[in-house]
Amino acid sequence: LICYYYLIPQSRPLNHASNKFSIITYTLILSQKKKNINNQSYNSCQIPFEMEYGNSTENGIGKSNGISNGYGIGNGYVNGHGIGNEHGNGNGDVYGNGKVNGEKVKKMKPMDSEMLREQGHIMVDFIADYYKNLEDSPQDFPVLSQVQPGYLRDILPDSAPDHPEPLKELLHDVSKKIIPGLTHWQSPSYFAYYASSTSVAGFLGEMLNAGLSVVGFTWLASPAATELEVIVLDWLAKLLQLPDHFLSTGNGGGVIQGTGCEAVLVVVLAARDRIMKKVGKNSLSQLVVYASDQTHSSFRKACLIGGIHEENIRLLKTDSSTNYGMPPKSLEEAISSDLAKGFIPFFICATVGTTSSAAVDPLFPLGKIAESYGIWMHVDAAYAGNACICPEFREHIDGVENADSFNINAHKWLFANQTCSPLWVKDRYSLINALKTNPEYLEYKVKVSKREEVVNYKDWQISLSRRFRSLKLWMVLRLYGAENLRNFIRDHVNLAKHFEDCVAQDAHFEVVTTRYFSLVCFRLAPIDGDEDKCNDQNRELIATVNSTGKIFISHTALSGKFILRFAVGAPLTEEKHVTEAWQIIQKHATKFIHNKKN
Q: How confident is the model at residue 595 (pLDDT cuts 50, 70, 90)?
């Protein structure tokens, strides 16, 4: 009887700072039956591995494969003197340098189709269980993470492992160490920032994208990646009823940026270069941009990256009289004043659905002003633009025909998963001229059989590399259909209205702004007009509510008032979650209401 001792690295060391080896003995249960192959005697054996690693069985010619629920133990080769490739240690038929008769038989194979099939099933099950548990066991998943800064460093090793570890062990660590440190954006009780909506179709699109793993920076690099993006963005533009000049059939077209921040940046650069060609390259210090004080912070960052002087960024004041939309009169006055001082106005950023309160800038009058002065107008509709596929919300982008560019974030409300930010431009050549690069190693002349030119998306964005993002948008549109998407958006808006009605029926609270979409801005009402005390009470209220882990809401400031935000957008949210959230808020507001009565 020969017992083999496998020298393998600990798959789960007790001391995480150590990467020592341990000797693990596996029992060999020898069968009574013997086989004779090539005049040599071999014992057929079964090896019961710990941690459900399955059985290793002889394979006729002495080759045994240890597979364990998709985790694997590598290849065992029997040559009469021992076992080669002794420690697959968690990666099945993929890892190891075992030898047969002194010759190397296997190296690591990073993309193995069978391993992908086995471990892919395990990963899908893990993710599906996560979503099921978010719904069925919310008490185990505090919406706002309760960990402290630096928590993860204390529970992970100081260095990477030298040898592979089983997927089962890794997913155990995800469950016990990573998930507690997550704020659960997909929780049905997440009502804080605008949602990062996900879906089965979006997930499958991401999976296919990762599996194909193409890099479509030019048409030639992956023709289907480029052409599908052109087509899908034309589809989406038509759903939004965008003007024809944003379609690929004219001088415009669409491109998927990584985020809305990138979309704003590239159009600022395009507008800057366009105006500097007219007024000269030394005019940078005179260039002026305009937006409201409610515009997303990425606008300021884009301008600074583009070399615009900070003092030349005009953020026009808004107030409740326009429901925090940009006042056209203030814009025209600012432009006239700057022209009189020798400045060069060149860019206006309008917003449909601001971050703070979902305010809507009046596009039609703003567009007319931009047109009269020859100024590039961009419309940032990252959140609310998605809702405009519904006819009843389309009016909020009336006037977009006067815009030079327009963007939405499909990962916010069209269930396309992070990240997917379609951008359309009226004149693609302005964008291309600002961003194109043509190094020799990318030069390749493509014969065009049709009248349209070849699109090279590397010249429509900051980076060279790009993912096949249009796949998931294509899958969302095809697997759900436009009408289902419209109805889901309508459901979210109705849930927000339900919450708004709850607030309006409680005299201790007040709705602060007009609700257009699925965001409700509200607060605990002031006592005797004392705004400072009211602000402090609302700060304390939101901190208390969020510390419960049962819901997560966020805040903003409008006209010096501390405002609570309740944004519906998570794909699992139903009316019962909204009702429960309101009850939690009411419960923790009791002490302030009691003090008011006293």
A: low
Burial, 91: exposed, middle or buried (Cβ in 10 Å; 0-12, 13-18, 19+)?
buried
Closest CA to 567 of 350, 353, 285: 353
Q: Which helix (H) or strand (E) holds 571?
A: none
pLDDT above 70 covers what percent of the chain?
80
Mean pLDDT is lowest, of 103-107, 441-445, 476-480, for 103-107
User: What is the domain partition of the chain in residue ranges?
Assistant: 215-466
Match domain 215-466 to its CATH number in 3.40.50.2300, 3.40.50.300, 3.40.50.280, 3.40.640.10.
3.40.640.10
Rounded CA separation 71/114 (Å) = 11
Burial of residue 391 (number of CB atoms within 10 Å: 0-12, 13-18, 19+): exposed
209 neighbors 480 (Cβ within 8 angstroms): no
Closest CA to 581 of 535, 548, 557: 548
pTM score of the predicted model = 0.81
Q: What are phi and psi of 592, to 5 degrees?
A: -75, -40
Side-chain-side CA neighbours of 263 within 13 Å: the count stands at: 28
Q: Which 8-state DSSP code applies to residue 213? A: -
Residue 360 dihedral angles phi and psi, to the nearest 5°: -120, 120
Q: What are phi and psi of 367, to 5 degrees?
A: -65, -35
